């Protein structure tokens, strides 16, 4: 809390400011750096507006078209035949399956790698450093880019989406798992070792019981994130509900687009709620 100076103190400060005004100002170099920063930010902002042709007329035209699109979305489409609705359900199921398989495959590949990157397990600095840089290398490539590459290699469909999610998650899971392993307590490990257990048994009975709830919580959180990613991957041709959504947008069937978006929101909401419930149980059980 800032305390206001008393009247005599304020008078003395004013007198000192009158005698040496430069002592109460920031140094010239600091003021120049601040002015250059704001000038550079303003110049970059203006350059972006000009380079990207962001004009009020263009914004107004875009908003008008956006209003037309929203007007075409209402009322939402209601599927009247099971054949039409089953196609949407199949797309939702494919997206869920892509997220599930991608998450599981990524976790299976990341689990052994995480031990190589954990400081309390791997005592070889060079190997640990190389493994951690491998995590960074994998995580640097976006899932969408991986999907486009796998579509070229394996063709259109959910397989490309599953592989994209799995490869992307290897780096993320390995990093998060290794950090969870590093944060475990040494006491259970020392207890197993003191009882004559081997190094492998120390990991099995000393580390794993501590780290498994955290790993399961990470898996659930990333699974719900991958459901959302699976929708986007479908738009570029990796199957699932995103592929169906892209098809309806290309056909200007906006009322059906809005109905599919509502179903996607409901699906993500239910998964988020269920995943959060399980995570709270897991964390609560170990708290």
TrEMBL record:
<feature type="transmembrane region" description="Helical">
    <location>
        <begin position="202"/>
        <end position="221"/>
    </location>
</feature>
<protein>
    <submittedName>
        <fullName>Phosphonate ABC transporter, permease protein PhnE</fullName>
    </submittedName>
</protein>
<feature type="transmembrane region" description="Helical">
    <location>
        <begin position="227"/>
        <end position="245"/>
    </location>
</feature>
<comment type="similarity">
    <text>Belongs to the binding-protein-dependent transport system permease family.</text>
</comment>
<dbReference type="InterPro" id="IPR035906">
    <property type="entry name" value="MetI-like_sf"/>
</dbReference>
<dbReference type="InterPro" id="IPR000515">
    <property type="entry name" value="MetI-like"/>
</dbReference>
<dbReference type="InterPro" id="IPR005769">
    <property type="entry name" value="PhnE/PtxC"/>
</dbReference>
<keyword id="KW-0812">Transmembrane</keyword>
<dbReference type="Pfam" id="PF00528">
    <property type="entry name" value="BPD_transp_1"/>
</dbReference>
<keyword id="KW-0813">Transport</keyword>
<dbReference type="GO" id="GO:0005886">
    <property type="term" value="C:plasma membrane"/>
</dbReference>
<dbReference type="GO" id="GO:0015416">
    <property type="term" value="F:ABC-type phosphonate transporter activity"/>
</dbReference>
<feature type="domain" description="ABC transmembrane type-1">
    <location>
        <begin position="92"/>
        <end position="275"/>
    </location>
</feature>
<feature type="transmembrane region" description="Helical">
    <location>
        <begin position="257"/>
        <end position="278"/>
    </location>
</feature>
<keyword id="KW-0472">Membrane</keyword>
<feature type="transmembrane region" description="Helical">
    <location>
        <begin position="35"/>
        <end position="54"/>
    </location>
</feature>
<feature type="transmembrane region" description="Helical">
    <location>
        <begin position="96"/>
        <end position="116"/>
    </location>
</feature>
<keyword id="KW-1133">Transmembrane helix</keyword>
